[in-house]
Design a protein that fits this description.
Length: 270
């Protein structure tokens, strides 16, 4: 079955991973800008990273037969220094204008501090002022409910927000309902240890239905699995779900979400 991994950090993966992902049916990936494991020393490091995400990684993916799209943003982990983050935000329009960028992401909260919130608001303002899609990272387990609530409250206060153009990612059992109830796309990350697993994601699809749910590997440089979406497909098949239901989650839904971006020009095979 063809699938889309809507959230994966290709820059941290090998060419062998890409070849195997393609063999397993991956046709499109979305790569949000994120924290590379260390704080950048200056804005030029961000510039190089944004170039990598819009120039080099699309090429590596194309060589494997996968269409690559990027998201531009500054992660909450580097949003604490508001003045520095401001310089990075100022650089974003140039990259958002690139032909293979879907929107502003991944942005969000990590420790839910005042400074993180200030940077997040400036990123949301930039995205809304340009009618960009928005992709939100939600914090790790101990802060997840609080951070998700803070993000949803911020969005609900702004009348310009169209929930169909927003994905709240890394949802778990205690946040997925909040996100779906307010009309957003809910991303579920399949991780070997933290976040959700393929079987927990299957449970959530069984409880809430396949509408507005996206599953992704968020595979990066840490313990993660670039083949997590195929594992979810296998788990759903094991449980006897119809192919159409599985395809909705791993293909139709991300296609629908991404297609709202003027830069998404992937042509599905008939
Ligand atoms: Zn990520």
């Amino acid at each position: 079955m063809n699938y889309i991994d809507p959230h994966i950090h290709i820059a941290a993966r090998t060419t062998d991973d890409l070849a195997l992902m393609a063999k397993m049916g991956c046709v499109v990936v979305g790569e949000p800008a994120f924290w590379m494991g260390y704080d950048r020393s200056g804005t030029s490091s961000f510039r190089d990273y944004f170039r990598q995400l819009t120039e080099w990684e699309p090429k590596r993916c194309a060589d494997a037969g996968i269409k690559h799209y990027a998201w531009m943003g500054i992660n909450a982990k580097e949003a604490e220094d508001v003045a520095f983050a401001k310089e990075v935000v100022a650089m974003l329009p140039e990259f958002l204008d690139r032909h293979n960028v879907l929107g502003v992401g991944e942005i969000g909260l990590h420790k839910c501090t005042v400074n993180e919130m200030a940077t997040l608001k400036s990123l949301v303002e930039l995205g809304l002022s340009r009618s960009e899609l928005l992709l939100f990272h939600t914090p790790h387990l101990e802060d997840k409910y609080k951070g998700t609530r803070m993000i949803l409250d911020m969005l609900s206060e702004d009348k310009r927000v169209d929930s169909a153009r927003v994905c709240i990612d890394h949802c778990e059992e205690h946040t997925v309902r909040l996100v779906l109830n307010e009309g957003y796309w809910a991303g579920i990350t399949l991780y070997p240890t933290t976040k959700a697993t393929p079987s927990r994601a299957a449970d959530m699809v069984e409880i809430y239905g396949p509408d507005h749910i996206l599953v992704n590997s968020s595979a990066d440089w840490g313990p993660s699995n670039p083949f997590a979406v195929p594992e979810f497909i296998a788990e759903m098949r094991r449980r006897g779900h119809a192919e159409a239901v599985i395809r909705k989650v791993v293909y139709d839904n991300p296609l629908k979400f991404f297609s709202q971006s003027k830069n998404f020009n992937f042509q599905p095979a008939e």
